[in-house]
Design brief:
This protein is mainly alpha-helical. The chain has 8 helices and 2 strands. It has a two-stranded antiparallel sheet. α5 crosses α6. The longest helix has 28 residues, at 2-29. The protein is globular, with a radius of gyration of 21 Å. The relative contact order is 0.13.
């Protein structure tokens, strides 16, 4: 539950941060730039938010809200810089790049130029035409595993082994000693 709540808060703050980035870009580049590059602005804002928090070792606002910290896959150490950078790039940039590739190579309905000319199957076009179905199935499976095991909320965190741990001690014996019981 706390992981989901942290993700919800971070999504809210990423959206707020994106609005602020759009306001600044509006001053320098104008509304037309914002209207023609909404996905790029979203990716940039999400990347900047995570670089200013996760990459440097600070917690995001959602993680602070529910008092979570990142640990490595074993749960015994803090994750290394390269793992955090890999997570940020795969979380923010990879979905954008895949979406761009799908749009570029997905055949248009009724478009004769997108069909293979030599009679063979064009594996790239075929892959990208089935990509959304495969991705939906993969994400549904990943979320189901998360709700059973509770370890990795996003696929990027699973790939790079970034788990959450509570930022405070929840051991009842130690809590009683701290209160003087």
């Amino acid at each position: 539950y706390t992981t989901v709540r942290a993700h919800q808060k971070d999504t809210y703050f990423e959206s707020s941060y994106r609005s602020q980035v759009q306001d600044v870009l509006h001053l320098f580049k104008g509304q037309r730039f914002i209207n023609t590059h909404p996905e790029e602005i979203t990716v940039a804002a999400k990347s900047l938010y995570l670089m200013l928090t996760t990459l440097i070792g600070a917690r995001t606002l959602g993680e602070e809200y529910v008092d979570l910290i990142y640990v490595n896959r074993s749960g015994k150490r803090f994750p290394q810089l390269l793992l955090k950078l890999g997570f940020i790039l795969s979380y923010a940039l990879l979905p954008y790049l895949f979406t761009r590739l799908v749009r570029k190579y997905k055949p248009k309905d009724g478009d004769e130029s997108s069909k293979p000319k030599d009679g063979t199957k064009d594996w790239l076009v075929q892959f990208f035409s089935s990509y959304p179905k495969v991705l939906d199935t993969l994400m549904n499976l990943h979320i189901a595993i998360f709700y059973f095991k509770g370890e990795f909320y996003s696929l990027s965190k699973r790939i790079f082994g970034l788990r959450y741990a509570f930022g405070h001690n929840k051991d009842p014996k130690k809590l009683r000693l701290a209160r003087g019981d």
